[in-house]
Amino acid sequence: MTFTIPPGAPKAASAAAFGRELVKALEVRKVPRNELWRATGIGRTALDNYRVGASLPLTEAAATLAVALDWPPLLEIVRAARERRCARCRAPFRNEGGNMGAKRYCSPACRIIAENERLASKRARQASQTGDGKRRYQEVARLRSGIRIATEQATEARGAIATMCASCEPQGLCRTADCPLRAFSPLPMATHRSVTPATRTLAIARRSARRWTPAARAAQSEKTRRLHAEGRMSIDGIRANHPAHDPLRREAWLAAIRATKARRGHTGGRRPKAVPA
Ligand SMILES: [Zn+2]
Questions:
Q1: Among the CATH numbers 3.40.50.300, 1.10.530.10, 1.10.3470.10, 1.10.260.40, which is that of 12-168?
Q2: Contact criterion met (CB below 8 Å) for 67 and 25
Q3: Which distant-in-sequence residues (6+ apart) come within 8 Å of 15 by Cβ?
Q4: Number of C-alpha atoms within 13 angstroms, CB side, residue 243?
Q5: 105 and 111 in contact (C-beta within 8 Å)?
Q6: CA-to-CA distance for 147 and 157, rounded, in angstroms?
Q7: Taking Cα atoms as reference points, which of 80, 81, 58, 79 lies closest to residue 9?
Q8: Quick check: 10 and 56 in contact, CB under 8 A?
Q9: Were both Cys, which of 1, 78, 241, 268 would link to 231 (CB 3.0–4.6 Å)?
């Protein structure tokens, strides 16, 4: 199922830009749409939706198309459209949601930490109003500094993993499902094939190679030879054995046509004159 963007939605412009870029890539690479479907396994309906800008592909599909057509802008458009920054740790993350609603955090962990921070602040405020505020306040400060250190370390680790993944898969698609870095990789896991699609010329050549096997060729030339022998082939628009070209049969042929027409009530183009009243 492909999510179709309602008109006027924020990502409609990106989807339209992606569609235009896909059309351009297919044209320049001379790849028929069917071949793209065959090569990537991305469904025809989905491809049609992308082409007309009715939906924006997930990063993985965009990367697959970018690889298949050797057209990096396809991935860049989707990356730019789907990239967000976490409201807590500021790390970039992909929003792969259908309607791309208000997803604010990079991970469930960040969402929970942000929630806890809010709660702690609230408690500290309340505590300072009741008396043993100082101790509570110190607790919160310690919690905050701990979180800050962890966040900094996580950001460094994330950067290192991203660099590692980018050098392993420069095309932006992870193909190693059991990589130990998989759970932390910023790259989407490749789920589609990416075989290079055939160009228009190659697709036609393949199709005719399938159709014109040596046996099919032999059968066709046998048929042509027979038609020639029977005089049924037209040469310069004239069928050799047609009675019109045979003085011995011509009269009989014309008589047969006249007889048929008479039987069917034809008047040879002359209609009886209407009698004036
Ligand atoms: Zn985060």
A1: 1.10.260.40
A2: no
A3: 5, 50, 53, 54, 55, 56
A4: 10
A5: yes
A6: 15
A7: 81
A8: no
A9: 241
Q: How far is the CA of 249 from the centre of ligand 1 (A)?
A: 94
**Cα–ligand 1 centroid distance for 90 (angstroms):** 6
Q: Give the Å distance between the CA of 27 and the centre of ligand 1.
A: 41
Q: Hunting for tokens 């963007």 — which residue is that?
A: 5
CB–CB of 98/3 below 8 Å?
yes
Per domain, the residue ranges of the chain are 12-168
What does the pLDDT profile of the chain (277 residues) look like in tens digits? 456 777 777 788 999 999 999 999 999 999 999 999 999 999 999 999 999 999 999 999 999 999 999 999 999 999 999 999 999 888 888 888 765 567 889 888 889 989 988 888 887 777 767 667 777 777 778 888 888 888 889 889 999 999 999 999 999 999 999 999 998 999 999 999 878 899 999 999 998 888 888 999 999 999 999 988 887 787 777 777 788 888 889 999 999 999 998 888 776 566 656 666 5
- 44 Cβ contact list (under 8 Å, min separation 6): 33, 34, 37
Helices 59-68 and 44-51, axial angle in degrees (round to 10): 90
Ligand 1 mean position to 158 CA, how many Å?
Answer: 11
Which residues, at least 6 apart from 101, have a Cβ–Cβ distance to it below 8 Å? none
